[in-house]
Amino acid sequence: MAAREIGLWRHAAVRAGRGLAALLIICLASVGPGSGLGPGPGLSLFSAAPAHAAAATEPVTVYYALWLPQTVGLVPVSAVPPVGLSPERGALELLVAGPPPGSGLSRTMPEGTTVLGLEVRDGLATVNFSAAILENSYGSTGEALLVGSIVNTLTAFYGIDRVWILVDGQPPGSLGGHIDITEPLSYNPHLVYRRGLPDVAGHWAEGHITAFCLTGIISGYPEGDFRPERTVTREEFVKMLVLVRGLEPLRPGQPAFQDVPLDRWSSGYVEAAVAAAILVPSDYGQYFAPSGPPSRLEMATMLVRATANEALAASLRDAPLPYTDAAQLPSWARGYIAAVTQLGLMRGYPDGSFMPQATAKRSEAVTVLSRLLSPAEGRVIIVRPAEGQSVGDRVLVLGAASTFEATVQVRVKAPDGTVFAETYATATDGGPCWGVFAALLPVPGTDAAFAVEAYEMSAEDGSEIYLTMRTVRRISQP
After folding, report:
1. Four-CA torsion 443, 446, 450, 456, nearest 10 degrees
2. From residue 393, how far is each of 410, 415, 440, 446 by CA, in Å?
3. How many angstroms separate the CA atoms of 106 and 101, rounded?
4. What digits encode the pLDDT tens for the residues 289-339?
5. Which domains does the chain have, with CATH numbers?
6. Could you tell me how far CA 284 lies from the centroid of its own chain?
7. Which residue intervals of 19-133 are DSSP H helices?
């Protein structure tokens, strides 16, 4: 089989039964002291001692995996490494430890893997792992993310251009039978997660769509686009709303609507919405018309029910509305529209109308639903952690941003409001485009709630702009 280049790494492709093509290594050439790739005189690869004596105080970049329904990639995470280690060694230890649970990102390293040694010389980082790194069955994608996370994490340091991976002091040739690592590897930009939906670049709703992609709630069409100007359908809106509320699809014995049979793709989401009283079958009769568009009034009604605010809607039925077409609304609808307005979930149009019978584009639907995840309307959106989420001794802040020089400031505040930890992260696509940012920070050792914040620092006067926040709580330690 002829060798070819894919990305920056040498491998050959063969057809796989499913998923991505399996990758076959080109060669398993032996690498010894005479090859120019082995350790030079005086270098020890078998000691756990750090490569440098100085303790790390600046944040480092660690690459964790992001698995989404239609794409995968590596996300650079700004993190403060453990005290007492060199920056390079500290970054590797964070990589081995993996991201905290519930962060939205995944570890690339097998459990039990340890770093046995690290040496840096003349632009080459030689890292020695324990044999546990060979014990997983990765598949081609998993192995590519594993190798990429090691190489990209180390080449993020100034002065490191290439990375050579050893296992128990010996070149393994491959970690899983798919990627050739007989020679040092360089940074691979093709593995870094980018916007997976090219037709939203530059769109006014790009930020909300990017954030929603990070949650896995939306993934676009099989062709790889999102079609933001297309009218959203009733079943599409219900699916997104159900997932935003954290509900699981249901499979009852009988369908709630005759035109949503149990084998229809949206059935589980529609049934979950019915079970949660987001949808009331008597509002529709026997037919839901899943492929038809919902009206803005219908969307408002579902939003109120999904957020358990029907009592609020009832109390606002006679409240004045700030819309020029309010007089046309039936009395029962006024409370729902007043509620979504007060909650900041829906707004009127520039001419002052609400247009209750109008439909919505897919971009408009995502924007409305994203307000359930992040009320802030600026150019920094936090996706993880969720509001009220419990975290361990670290919190990973994941989000989307379009900021000056792609820089996002991230901090953790103690319960008394003082800054406990802070760092900065760089969005993947660079400003002013929307990209993904992530930061890993320690949290206060208290059971009290505390704040996680992300914002941009103004280039004009240094003030904090586009501030967005989550309130979280540390899991009680036994």
Report:
1. -20
2. 17, 15, 10, 10
3. 8
4. 999 999 999 999 999 999 999 999 999 998 999 999 998 888 889 999 999
5. 58-191 (no CATH), 227-373 (no CATH), 380-474 (2.60.40.1220)
6. 36
7. 87-97
